[in-house]
Amino acid sequence: MTTSRLKTLTANREQPYSYAFLDAYAKRELRRKILKAIAVPGYQVPYASRELPIARGWGTGGLQVTLSLVGPQSVVKVIDQGADDSVNAANLRQFVARMTGAATTTDTLQATLIQSRHRVPEERLREHQTLILQVPDPEPLRRIESNMARARELHADAEYGQMWLVLYEQLVRFRRYMAGASYPMMVHGRFVMSPSPIPRWDNPKLHQAAHLTLLSAGREKRLYAVPPYTDAYSLEFEDVPFEIEDQRQWVCARTGARNKFMNEIPLPDGGAKYEISDTGYADKLVERAIDGPEANTLGETYYDDEGNFYHAGYLKPPRRPA
Amino acid sequence: MPYVAARGGESAILQAERLYHALKAAPTRELIRAIEQTMPYLIDKLIGEGSLYAPELAALALAQTGGDLYEAVLLLRAYRSTQPRIGYALPLDPAKMITVRRISAAFKDIPGGQVLGPTLDYSHRLLRMDLLTGANDEAPPPVDPAERPAAATYPLVADWQRANGLIATEKAEQNGQNGQNGHSGPVDPAEIPDVTRDPIAIPAPRAHRLQSLARADTGGVLALGYSSMRGYGFIHPTVNELRLAHAEVEVTHPVTGAVFSAGRVRISQAEVVSQSAADGKIGYKIGFCATLGWNEVKTIAGATLDLEMSSPDAHPALSEDFVLYHTEPVESSGFCIHFKLPHYVTFASDTDSLRKAMETLYGIPLEMAGLKAEAAKPAKPPAERTQEAE
Predict the structure, then answer these.
(1) Interface contact flag, A251 B382, Cβ < 8 Å
(2) Which of A121, A303, B84, B272 keeps 20 to 30 A from B77, CA to CA?
(3) How far is A104 from chain B (nearest CA, A)?
(4) Subunit contact B360:A175, Cβ cutoff 8 A
């Protein structure tokens, strides 16, 4: 090693941080691990996971993936629980913009990279768009096997019998599947995967999708992927289909829309009102109501106004065991 | 104002941060220097958990966060993670460290002698109220020098035990995983697994285990180590040797190839021993923990956990998987405080399942469970109603 080489390696005080914060070695590792994750859909790839200037558990896994993919031409959207202006989404978006100069947007159609905490947007994502889901717990087997080494063996053997047993016990006790968000999915017929705590409403959007979904857990140091046009099925028995949330009766108080995922907002009189969780989409509906259809471009949605999912036949009508 | 999905979230977080800083005195260069000089043990704890030997930056982190230790550790770690690895220091030989305190509980006297060094162990824990009044502001009484100055370096207690055949010999780990033991031949430092650059896998290479303990949360290591000592484990840790020392960080010069010291670091290390019958041969087995900075409680508890984690049937809370994952200060504190973030989508999904099950099992009509359409009601947010009432 020569002195000039040494100089290139020591800190440059004028430009203390690399482009997109992560150093080149960290980006290279992440990109390699992302390629591996795409090659083996649903498989959890371990990665080193650097500390970021954001608290662990606050989206550092998704952020590392975003920072390893973002470039000057990128258009970045960040949402938390569906909302662009939630405080943590605002913080992460500011950080990405500050470290990269990338453009930001709230419009799903314009984004090239969408980092999200626990929602898939309502408008259909297209090819060459990447959805990056923040993951608190990547291990769908955690409740049945908390030891990570043994859980990895179960995945390696595709030994998912206990997962089916959990579902069966729920049917016996409650006559329905009881999982809320984080409802496990089988990806490409091989790996059971946690889709992150997205509502069940969003699970079908990962199946045979045009876009790439990357899921990354910074604290747990695992990332995995659902590549475009890949099968992804929520776990279900043949005779008792998986069910999404039933919000058919709910009407958005801001837009009057139905059959989009809604937030339930308690009111002082004991009642509740509802509004669309995807604020980027809802804002466009409001704009159009005021300024007419020229106000913006509205994308096709995964669920139509009657609540029909765009892959006909993928969601089956509910059936309860006797 | 609701903090979730607050319209104008960007302005809200800016003002919230300003308010945090407004509620404490602004840090000055003098304050940062004073923290570094008056609180070396606090600085050392941060240096260890932040795994960054930078007393000045640790003092800055404390001043900047108003003393929130987990925030301060995160500041150091987030800075550390941007620094390139420009070289590898040579392994430390404990027998060459400039040792200021070394004690062994296993023997009354040891080769080189017991050296009490700096400690509060035998102090009376009485608050010095007189310092509050300023009545006794003069410098504390100086240390009387010993008649014979203590030696700078000391042999290892474990070497005596090894020579006497008391230590159960371990098979040397392959693939450069025996970074702890200076006696088993040269190791290329670049071959030692680095927990900051590789994902940890369980069972962990020994280097990852010791690095994780060195970076671990002092309180977390103490809680789990104490649970072992109290009887949930089966180790009775005898402190074979506890050391506080200054160690030379020796590196090889990139041009001349000469070995030189890049500086000194404060380091603490503990060895505990417990009887073992591993591989059918009985003897004492050594648990080891070292960290940057002087932090005795962490190294004693950490060395105890090192032994526990090697036990074939450790208590689940003392297994390697459990200990290493749950004593990570940045990850554990970050995940704990993340529960402050909005979770309303997840909660709504769970509530949907709960309502449907209540309907199926108890026949509670959906309306009673709050699942009725809201179309007829005027849709005004509660804040506006309040304003109208005023």
Answers:
(1) no
(2) B272
(3) 14
(4) yes
Which tens digit of pLDDT belongs to each residue from A32-68?
999 999 999 999 999 999 999 999 999 999 999 999 9
Q: Domain map of chain B by residue range? A: 14-80, 94-118+148-336, 353-383
Q: Which of B330, B337, B345 sits opposite A181 (nearest CB)?
A: B345
pLDDT tens-place string over residues B122-174:
999 999 888 888 877 778 889 999 898 889 999 999 999 999 999 887 655 54
For residues A113-123, give the mean pLDDT.
98
Domains in chain A, CATH or no CATH each: 24-234 (3.40.50.11310), 246-292 (no CATH)
Interface of A with B in 49-108 (CB under 8 A): 49-53, 55-58, 60, 80-83, 85-91, 94
Backbone angles phi, psi at A196, to 5 degrees: 70, 165
Instruction: List beta partners, residue A266.
Output: A272
Long-range pairs of B8-14 with CB within 8 A, sequence gap ≥ 24 = B8/A85, B9/A85, B9/A86, B9/A87, B9/A89, B9/A90, B10/A85, B10/A90, B10/A94, B12/A87, B13/A87, B13/A90, B13/A91
- pLDDT tens-place string over residues A253-279: 999 999 999 999 999 999 999 999 999
**What digits encode the pLDDT tens for the residues B209-243?**
999 999 999 999 999 999 999 999 877 889 999 99
Half-sphere exposure of residue A231: CA atoms within 13 angstroms, side-chain side: 9
Interface touch B202/A272, C-beta < 8 Å: no
Helix (H, G, I), strand (E, B) or coil at B372: coil
Distant-in-sequence, close-in-space partners of A81: CB < 8 Å, separation ≥ 6: A117, A118, A119, A277, B4, B5, B342, B343, B344, B345
Question: Which residue of chain A is at minimal alpha-carbon distance from B368?
Answer: A271
Give the residue among B265, B310, B366 at the shortest CA–CA distance from B54.
B265
Share of chain A above pLDDT 70, in %: 95
| Strand ranges inside A38-81, DSSP E | 45-46, 75-80
Contact assignment for B254 to A2 by CB distance below 8 Å: yes
